[in-house]
Amino acid sequence: xxxxxxxxxxxxxxxxxxxxxxxxxxxxxxxxxxxxxxxxxxxxxxxxxxxxxxxxxxxxxxxxxx
Amino acid sequence: xxxxxxxxxxxxxxxxxxxxxxxxxxxxxxxxxxxxxxxxxxxxxxxxxxxxxxxxxxxxxxxxxxxxxxxxxxxxxxxxxxxxxxxxxxxxxxxxxxxxxxxxxxxxxxxxxxxxxxxxxxxxxxxxxxxxxxxxxxxxxxxxxxxxxxxxxxxxxxxxxxxxxxxxxxxxxxxxxxxxxxxxxxxxxxxxxxxxxxxxxxxxxxxxxxxxxxxxxxxxxxxxxxxxxxxx
Amino acid sequence: xxxxxxxxxxxxxxxxxxxxxxxxxxxxxxxxxxxxxxxxxxxxxxxxxxxxxxxxxxxxxxxxxxxxxxxxxxxxxxxxxxxxxxxxxxxxxxxxxxxxxxxxxxxxxxxxxxxxxxxxxxxxxxxxxxxxxxxxxxxxxxxxxxxxxxxxxxxxxxxxxxxxxxxxxxxxxxxxxxxxxxxxxxxxxxxxxxxxxxxxxxxxxxxxxxxxxxxxxxxxxxxxxxxxxxxxxxxxxxxxxxxxxxx
Lengths: 66, 232, 247
Fold this sequence. Notes:
The complex is a heterotrimer of chains A (66), B (232) and C (247). Helix content of chain A is 82%, strand content 0%.
């Protein structure tokens, strides 16, 4: 560890604001691009599953002659 | 009437295409005049926006003139293939036995003749209005002659890729403006150097090299783009 | 050898193998990212000229390097899809553009933040920043062109042509911007020659570059998986997958 204390690490001799905000923004963007495809995939699978369920219900309804 | 049995050779075909494009352009002189008028109007905007002080204008003049030339070339490049795409003659061109590379080059050449060449020829007039030192006018015309040819070729790529789209107007500028930047850099640097009394020849040589590269590669991309647009 | 290529062209196989790779690569990536960031932030000595603000280098440079490499990955995938008509290369090309744009954005923002303490302003029109800005425009152009086409097959081809044009142009743009602004510190990492950067600062930087490459790969694979599912939504294997997902 280069810094002596947490305060020193946070302030970084006056440059802390720049350094930490740069890291925070980058982490945020990386998290966004990592999570976006996962969300898209889940949404699609959920929609497809729903469609299939509805279709199956429609089939059974027809078989029962309703 | 006799029907020719063999299709015309590539050179004859391209010359015919070139003549056709020029004739079409000459039938609408207003459309030839539009980019020049645009050039004149934007030149008039700069003194209004920056103030009429001659020294200030002279300092910005190389960049201003080049940016306006770039924009007027950009605004006209959208129309290169548009009307031929709409009336179906572009499809005929794709089916023709002559290599598409050369016929596309003829289209671009026609576009350059009616925009870039004319812009370069009238630019000294606007250069004087905007107080560009007289020593730099030769460099301005030479750099515009070479540079607008590159702009026409690169603009043709954007035109070919967007010709099938209903809302292509804005998109084409987003696609090809990044590719215009090297031309702008070297073109305005040539004029800037000439105003300072430094030889502009190295920059003109680079523009010439860019032109050679563009002539060799851009028609390939334009041809591919036209095939995609027509198939879509 | 050929069967491998045939498998590469098969969506279900690619979907599954990408899932297997991700199961290993994603944790490794996250660990490397955390280790690299902590190392760069807390365990390296400050630069003698720039002080602590230089620590931004550990994200700025990797993001810029990978953003540039990403454009080439995109263009090569586009070339493969144009030449061999491989659908999966088209999927890969489409998946690259948003990731590359995001990484370029990171490089630009961190560059601006770095510029404030170093040069005293948020934005300087220097060669590298300008080049990164143009790279962002190139990425956004590809995204905009893809969205403009209704026919997605044609969209893929058009974007492939555009990214190939971009690939030819990027060296020209970079060289010309360099020429335009030749007042900048020279590249300080060379893998072959002597390196002017201290090893204690170099190792975390290399780790971060590797981590950003891994982030790019993970995002690429995940985007490809989502895209494959979307394109194959009408096939039986995807329907089965959806049912399994439900239960």
